[in-house]
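During the reporting period, we have paired protein sequences with backbone structure tokens. One record among many follows, to show the layout:
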Amino acid sequence: MRYWLVKQEPEEYSFDDLLRDGKTKWTGVRNYQARNNLRQMKKGDKVLFYHSVSEKAVVGLAEVSRESFPDPTDEKWVAVELKPIEKLACPVSLEKIKSEKLLQNIALIRQPRLSVMPLSEEEFEKILELANSKI
């Protein structure tokens, strides 16, 4: 199993929208590195859902429910299908992520414009731990 983080503006499509819909096609990715990451996603991989721009926080946990297929919005690109697992008890802000030594080298910090990025299991678990902390 692999671990990922995807970014989306909540005004465009929020984690609450994913919870309501039950699944979504993750379409519209137009960056080659992000596309390559989508191609590597496997069914069952865990995905952290990050609200970008206005919120800047990890807010939910999802999983890949369908591996890469041609993006219906432009078949030269690829998409995956995601389904929600749960909303995080406490959103994990970008500020909090930046303050954690273990998370200093994740793409969210190093490549802030990348919309689909891998995480190590340790990084993924650390973000979930932060979501469950009362601090």
Notes: The two ends are 29 Å apart (CA to CA). The CA atoms of residues 48 and 133 lie 17 Å apart. Residues 3-132 form a domain with the ph1033 like fold fold (CATH 3.10.590.10).
